[in-house]
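Our example copied in:
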Amino acid sequence: MSVSDPLLKRFKGLVLLLRNEKDAIRDHNSFLQQFSETLEEVFRRGLKHFVFLAEPGTIFGFNKRDYWNWIESLPDVLNVQSINPALTLSVSTVKNCKKVKSNQGRGRLFIRFALARKSLHLPVRYIHTNSTLLEYWYDPNTSIIGNEILSEIFLSLLEETKQILFNLNIKNSSFLDETWTIPVYKQFEFVPCRDLGIHLSYIKGRAVVAAVDIGSVAAEDNKIETGDVLDELYGVSLNGVRKGQIPELLKQNQGWPIYLAVVKCQFLSGVVFPPIAQRLRILGIDPTKLEANMHNVEGVHHTQHRFPPVSVESGTVAIPRLPPPHAQLPDDDLEQVPVNSPDGK
């Protein structure tokens, strides 16, 4: 069956590129982002009811109805006993994930989760068993999924993705609301301590590392650096974290090793992850200077931080120049907060 639609042709080419890869497809595969963006474009082509809906608790205040909405409805609309458990698991996993706040983020997480479990073909197959649902969501004249012939081609390409080994870090999902670009993600186990030696600013629902104490637990081997975003603490998502929640979690687990996951500020190339770059500018840090520092120390082995640390011994603190009050967003707390227990110990 020939592919006549340009978008499907592009998607087919990307499927072939991924199939030809010798190793498993990981988050930083050079074709993965384009593949994901093209796949999402197919899901959105000819989608009806693409409107803004109020959804309290989201970062942006409003949420756009998206392809995720019909996917999540499948277990309720169809006979649950007839649905493949892989689809039910994927939908429930996404619904329960605290790291994504928007329908866009949930749809993207579903795609990644379903790719890893070779089940992305299932929702397309199931929506075609319910003509009412299909007609409600897709225009047959402008969509791919709503078109009888094009949907068959698309479904055959999704079946092809089952032959590809996707080894994706599903935990690395906190920025899917904003971008398909996947940042560097690190998980650490620190020795039990009362003070990690990091200072945070809360910007756009994220706990951003504003400074790191020299000689602290977090500073060892540059594990935590200026600009990194704390993503999980003891398995609890920190996306949308409130001030005081992190010290409280540390207090609850006092005496135990500290399990912390972070989204790194920079890619291995030194380029700053764009959503973090936006937050650094609010904090008064120039991302281009961090990138320059990365290149200046490339190939040099030392224990000093590449980025501005806090010097406890001298009593001097490298505090970024904050923007004026009129330029600060209401939800931003730019004050540097040390990470320790609520009583300061």
